[in-house]
Amino acid sequence: MNQSFDSGRSLLRKLWVASLAALLLAHGAFAAPIATVEITDGTVFVARASGKRSIVATGSTVEAGDTLTTEKNSYARLRFTDGSELAVRPSSSLLVSNYHFQEHQPNKDNLVMRLLKGGIRNLTGLIGKRGNENAYRLDGATATIGIRGTDFVARICEADCAQDSKAGDTGKRSVVPVSANPIAARLFSAEGQAMVTPMGGQPKPLKVGDPVYRGDTVESASPGFATLVLSDETRVVLSAGSRYTLTAYRYNAKAPDSGTMITDLIKGGLRVVSGLLGKRKPQQVKFDTVTATVGIRGTNFDLVCAPSGSKNPQDYTPESSVALPCDQALYATTRDGEIEIKSGQHTLVVPKGQTGYVDAPGATPLLLAETPGFMRDNSAPKPELLDIDFKQLFGLDGNSMSEPGLYVEVKEGRVEMTQQNGQQITLNVGETGFAGPEGTELFRLGSTPSFLDRDAYLRDLRVDPVSCRAN
Fold first, then answer.
1. Model confidence, pTM
2. What is the per-residue pLDDT across 258-281, written as a single tens digit (0 to 9) for each?
3. Is CATH 2.60.120.1440 the classification given to domain 192-385?
4. In this structure, which CATH number among 2.60.220, 1.20.58, 1.10.287, 2.60.120 belongs to the domain 35-157?
């Protein structure tokens, strides 16, 4: 009898414990870890949703609802269960509001964080890359950051960023800034669908406003055209069906003499207005084809590729919908200034209003008695007539900025910043955005502020906090 009573009491106790555990788990008392602290340096705290506060060490876990805080000269790096990595710089505070990741439930993915102060660098994991692309979000004081599979830096500035900029370094040791491949150009306008093929990548549609990087190849529609504006203010209009590669491009407004521009016309034709590089260092600007290289002297000109044997205009009437490969003859007309055509060992200067012609690779270039009608009547827009707001395209100079607000720099992927008033901008690789503290300012920066570029803790995701070197 007693044995039966004890067995019943033991069963009741087990049921009570199981019910209590389920109740506590439902109320978050036994929250599952969502991230592990891979490394810490200095003093790092975590505050639970319950209010409990404890010091974080390597191997500690983080739960949904936790707030992670780094003290001055302290640092932490976390790895989440979805594979994302997060570095937190000194004097920062980050709240992980919501987190849900189950391997077989991609549509339920969710990660919402709030940067309360300081700065982070984040490399996203599976959340946001599978299922719902809007599942990954970082909230700032006045703006929300939507993540599209990316590596980015975010920092809230108060007076500290101005102090960092003045000091010239935000880490323990001086560092050399490491920048992503900067944006070389943007698609300003197009008739028909323009396409871009990244170096080593696959073709994809190019929309108006989209960035073009060094090594990218752009193709215009046929019929149609595409207009590129480069960051040095060069304007290039691709005629119907043309292919054009930004082979080598470097331009820094702070050091224009170090710039260079080498591009390749693969097929079709171009209408060009040279920019600041062409005016300041024309010898460092080249437009290549298989047939010849065109050098500029601060000028406007047109190029058209044609079949060999087209010296006499009456012998060649190009179809507007057909773009020919640039491995035979080349026409070059100067609309303003002058250009230089180099083919093999031969060089020809083409003055304003005249047309040069090269019949084949290495052939001697010569001036034509008259400009062919198809060059005079080019249907593609004249780039010098376009009304372009360069600050709107490439942003304000951010090199010396340190005003209070939220700064976001994209190292890889894409970020959408949305201000409280509904204003939104899209940041691509190499771009930095700024959201003002009052919730009314949101714009892209043409260059990354020095306090972000020089931040020893965030210049690389896997940095050793002791030496401030990548590991």
1. 0.72
2. 899 999 999 999 999 999 999 889
3. yes
4. 2.60.120
